[in-house]
Design goal:
It is an enzyme of class 2 (transferase). The chain is α/β, with parallel strands linked by helices and about 400 residues long. The protein has helices at about 10-20, 30-40, 55-65, 85-90, 105-115, 140-155, 215, 305-310, 320-330, 335-350, 400-405, and strands at about 1-5, 25-30, 75, 120-125, 165-170, 180-185. The protein has a 6-stranded mixed sheet with strand order 2-1-3-4-6-5, with helices on both faces. Helix 1 (about 10-20) crosses helix 10 (about 335-350). The longest helix is centred in the middle third of the chain and has 16 residues, at about 140-155.
């Protein structure tokens, strides 16, 4: 059960597939630190050409000693910026397929066409399958995918049919709310159903609760932490006044704190804090100084804490500085989610028997302490108190209006 991995990154999806019994035959990754992370932690073969957009696919298969039709699984998550929710909120709509960065999707399809795997797995954010805006004539990613698969089927006599599944990692036992879309297609036309929730509110009665940040991080919690993790920037002093599990909206007229900001005038992860008794918020790959999630001790998360929330094993070491490591971890698929998906692929599409429960999920604890008590708002921020306007809606903020007017690119 070999895997050809594209856009491998730090290897979260592929580590999960390995835990499910697959073998990573080769991977394609261009980022230098990611390539070092792969080399330091695995025996995977890394393609000499790391840029998926520049691949000679025939040469790639030869390099990994693979032939068309012999690959069990092609897996990868092309960069998601063209389909992100943040782009929709600030600009009105993400650029999607007209964004030059969407060329990575075409690179994925080129490998699919050449390798003809038993199964394809494409991972991305929810925006990948979002409905087109009213009046749009632009081809959307899912439309392109369907057309590509039809072309492949016509040329090779295959029967790939896309199955689109939406998952929240927390529903499957991962200690993090992380919503993603997976598109799967099996060569003979078998359909794939999303794994059923096993944890939390969406799971059957009697199922385990959500796995929490405390479950994942408790043994790392201490009053004594690295000073390099101190929050920085002009808003660092406000962070202790935010309750666990909340963000800056606490300090709006609809919140319980001081009216310091307009409702939804900031991005969601602004001053966003973990709650011990809930799953983590989504780990961000490219945060600013005020971008969470922050630890309940009012500091940045350490690399090991972020890796825990993404269910990487403690033995996994990441190459590069803090910014690079956070990007690698934030861009990854949680390892346990990859394992859940791999086990489901084996049972649904490869005809294997029930293979049991995932091995990479953290154990749940029963010693969660109460939430930290928020601190008063420091005096220097109280000058912001006032009757602030709410955000007018997606694409209607200052940046979106400038873009529509042609005064900002």
């Amino acid at each position: 059960m070999n895997v050809l991995s594209l856009f491998t990154g730090a290897g979260g999806l592929d580590l999960g597939l390995e835990a499910a019994g697959f073998h990573v035959a080769g991977c394609v990754e261009r980022d230098r630190d990611c390539r070092r992370t792969i080399a330091d932690n695995t025996s995977w073969r890394v393609a000499s050409e790391g840029d998926a957009e520049k691949l000679d696919v025939k040469r790639l298969l030869e390099e990994f000693e693979l032939k068309p039709g012999e690959v069990t699984l092609v897996a990868g998550g092309p960069p998601c910026q063209p389909f992100s929710k943040s782009g929709q909120w600030s600009n009105g709509t993400p650029a999607r397929m007209s964004d030059p960065r969407a060329r990575t999707l075409h690179a994925y399809f080129d490998v699919l066409d050449a390798a003809l795997p038993r199964v394809m797995v494409l991972e991305n954010v929810k925006g990948l399958v979002a409905k087109p805006r009213a009046g749009s004539t632009e081809e959307q990613a899912v439309e392109l995918l369907a057309r590509v698969l039809e072309d492949v089927n016509g040329r090779h006599g295959t029967s790939y049919r896309p199955s689109i599944i939406h998952v929240d990692a927390a529903d499957l036992g991962v200690p993090q709310r992380r919503e993603r879309v997976f598109v799967l297609a099996e060569r003979s036309g078998l359909e794939f159903a999303a794994p059923q929730a096993t944890h939390g509110r969406s799971a059957p009665d009697g199922a385990p609760r959500f796995t929490t940040a405390w479950d994942a991080l408790a043994d790392l919690d201490s009053d004594d932490w690295d000073p390099a993790l101190a929050a920085g920037g002009q808003w660092a002093g406000l962070l202790p006044s935010i309750p666990e599990g909340r963000n800056y909206l606490h300090h709006t007229r609809k919140g319980d704190g001081e009216p310091l900001f307009g409702w939804r005038r900031k991005y969601w992860s602004f001053l966003l804090k973990l709650a011990k008794d809930r799953p983590s918020w989504t780990i961000q790959a490219q945060p600013g100084s005020a971008t969470g999630p922050f630890h309940w001790r009012n500091r940045r998360l350490s690399a090991r804490e972020m890796a825990r929330l993404q269910t990487f094993p403690d033995t996994h070491r990441f190459s590069g500085g803090y910014t690079s490591v956070r990007r690698q971890i934030g861009n990854a698929v949680p390892v346990a989610l990859g394992e859940v998906l791999g086990l489901a692929i084996r049972t649904q599409l490869l005809g294997h028997m029930d293979l049991g429960v995932p091995s990479s999920l953290p154990r749940q604890r029963h010693d969660c302490p109460p939430a930290e008590v928020p601190a008063p708002v420091p005096t220097r921020y109280l000058a912001l108190r006032g009757d602030h306007d709410d955000h007018p809606g997606p694409g209607q903020g200052p940046r979106g209006v400038q873009i529509k007017a042609g005064t900002r690119q």
